[in-house]
Amino acid sequence: GESVGLHLPTLSVQEGDNSIINCAYSNSASDYFIWYKQESGKGPQFIIDIRSNMDKRQGQRVTVLLNKTVKHLSLQIAATQPGDSAVYFCAETRGQAGTALIFGKGTTLSVSS
Amino acid sequence: NAGVTQTPKFRILKIGQSMTLQCAQDMNHNYMYWYRQDPGMGLKLIYYSVGAGITDKGEVPNGYNVSRSTTEDFPLRLELAAPSQTSVYFCASSYSMTANTGELFFGEGSRLTVL
Question: Residue B98 has what pLDDT?
Answer without folding.
Answer: 62
